[in-house]
Amino acid sequence: MSIAGKFLAELKQESVNTRLILAAIPFDKAGFKPHEKSMTLKRLALHVAEINGWWKECLVQDELDFSKDSGIRKEVNSTEELLNYFDDLLAKSETILQNAKEEDFAKNWTMRNGDVVYFTLPKESVVRTWCLNHLYHHRAQLTVYLRLLDIPVPGMYGPTADTDTQ
Asked: N or C: less crowded end of the chain, CB within 10 Å?
């Protein structure tokens, strides 16, 4: 299987789990923060959804320069809007991976802020780190927010304390 095929299979599998978590987000608690330094529930949920959009930045483009980033973020105000945004970005990411060539993954990608270069890595490493591992990290944070709000945590890899019926 190609590199793109492996990433696409993982993205599709994990998107089911990500969607389960996003579907559980209560927008009546959108401002909840477990700590003053934490993102709000709404911001974190939006961040998890928008990570699917990073496949374009990480695989199609050759760098991300924060000094050129507009900083404009999508505004969502309901779970339905959040899921629609997630689904739209997922479809675009799947298309990017379906069209990716094997040699694309060997090209270097740079994250910078103007003249300050944070790192340069092969795109294969970048999409693993920023498009998948980064997603898993923040998705796990969302499960903690749900637990702290006493909202049932969906089972992603089997039952949770909330879904186990024994």
From this structure: C
Considering the entire predicted model, what is its pTM?
0.92
Contact between 147 and 154 (Cβ < 8 Å) = no
Which token pair is 96?
């990017």
- Classify residue 164: in a domain, yes or no: no
What pLDDT digit, counting tens, does each position of 116-156 carry? 999 999 999 999 999 999 999 999 999 999 999 999 999 98
Lookup result for tokens 């973020």: 73
- Where does residue 155 fall: left (phi above 0), alpha (psi -120 to 50 degrees), or beta otherwise? beta
Domain span at residue 71 reads: 3-148
Which of 19, 45, 2 is closest to 144 using CA atoms?
Answer: 45
Query: 85-125 pLDDT, tens per residue?
Result: 999 999 999 999 999 999 999 999 999 999 999 999 999 99
